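User: Second chain of the day. Same drill as before.
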Amino acid sequence: MSTAREPKSWEIAMPAARQGAEHDLRLGGDFFAAAGHADLLGGDILAHVSLVPAGGEWRITLRVEGQVRTRCDRCQAPMDVRVDDEYDAPLLPSPGGLVPPGDDTDAVYYDPATGIADLLRPLADTIAL
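Assistant: Same format as last time:
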């Protein structure tokens, strides 16, 4: 019996070889609930993730498109807003995939022990902006 858990819709596996990889992620209710972002009430987003080797590192590009439900700044009523944005950053290893203490870079991190990049935070931030 396998104890491996099912990956979340916002997690990707790092490629085994040093070659680029592409992922399309559909982000819906489970993503917005996990994000816990006060400005993101729900939505339907397609995220295209591109990984490109760059020297001894990786570069990641997150392209997000779709609709997000948020609150109007003026009246606070829920409203749907079109999202179409892109984020490009280094993708670096870090134990547990966690942001190292004191890090103030724009990097995204993956766990080298599991080869998994949890993109919940960078995707939520890109969508919210």
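The helical segments are 29-35, 120-128.

User: Great, on to the next one.
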